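**Discrete fold encoding**
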Amino acid sequence: MQQIPMPYLLFLGDVMDPLAAKTARGIHVWRPESCVGQIRLATDSVSLGLEELDIATAKARGAKTMVLGTANAGGKLPGHWIDSIKTAIRAGMNVANGLHQGLNDIPELVELAAEHNVQLFDVRHMRPELDVGSGKKRSGKRILTVGTDCSVGKMYTSLALESAMREIGMKADFRATGQTGVLVAGAGIAIDAVIADFISGAVESLSPANDDDHWDIIEGQGSLYHPSFAGVSMGLIHGAQAHLLVMCHELGRKHMRHLPHQFMPTLKQCVDTNLAAASLTNPDVQLAGFSLNTSGVDEAEAKAALAEISREFGVPATDPVRFGISELAQSIKDRGL
């Protein structure tokens, strides 16, 4: 699978909405050692607090790829960013892009990149030749993060688990399925850009056969209960052939994201449905635990809610931001799968 060269210069453009910079922020949180600095086009725009560098200085300090680290409505590339992209290419830097609009669809950038022997990485469209999924049993161990809804912390949970499992001596690798995750990992497949028939095959490709004691932690997407994204979630579940599922949830969320008419499932409904779907490709799949976003309540309420969930299901429940995820990682190790 194609690897995006690190370290990165994070391009923040001139966005004013902090949420628009979530891709750059995710890279900075999880791979700080791979961030040389940031570049902005407006002094009052969103900042990550990294050192401000121009392209020439970043290149001199070892940056290999400039990452367009922001998102906007519709995923269009703003025309006034093109000059910065050209400058990076002329400096000998690769450029990585998580927007829907591809750099490789702009002929002048393709020609310039070829002239300067650098690469343009369109992360949403960066994938190998894919086959349909087969469900054929493969070696290695796999965890899939699933959710009651979208935007409930599946990527954060997956990356936190990778770190915690490695800390206790386990072989573990994060497998990215979204554009931010791909840029954090440097490789992966943005599942939302894969033709539906090939989603499960893409996940099989992303997490191939491995050593019996090696864990792939596959970043989940969407929810089986979200009418917009359930198809993507199902393809991920079947392709992952997971041994363990980690259920992600936001405490107190009243309806599915962006769909006020759509009810939220109970945790039991969601666990049962996901385990039933996952059993198609791994009949022995189990629930590993819960990862909750409890930011809407105080610490005492959060601890009480997590303790109740743990008692009900008999597995660890945590908020990885507030309380860490080491207990869940240790319980996975102790299962001895």
Observations:
- The CA atoms of residues 227 and 262 lie 8 Å apart.
- Residues 8-125 form a domain with the Rossmann fold fold (CATH 3.40.50.720).
